[in-house]
Amino acid sequence: MMDEQAPESIFLGRYAGFVTRMVAFIVDRAIVSIIVFIMVWSTEWIVNAFEINMLLFFEGTSWQISLAVGVGLLLTITLLYDIGFWLLAGQTP
Fold it and tell me: Taking the model in full, what pTM does it have?
């Protein structure tokens, strides 16, 4: 039997601090918000182009439809983004 010991594991680098994590969180939210803005803008354009609000008897309420779609998309995408990355990688990018 040999009396060799396993080498100690050494953690190289530094862990991210509060400010770094906060900046990363803000950048993540900005990217998600831009994506949602583009999706809501596209929905608004489609509603106005094809007059879907008039077909559904919601005349003059296209901004309310866009607001509802925007809030729904923002909540859904944010939850899926966070939960998806936490489940797949154990962290958000």
Answer: 0.63
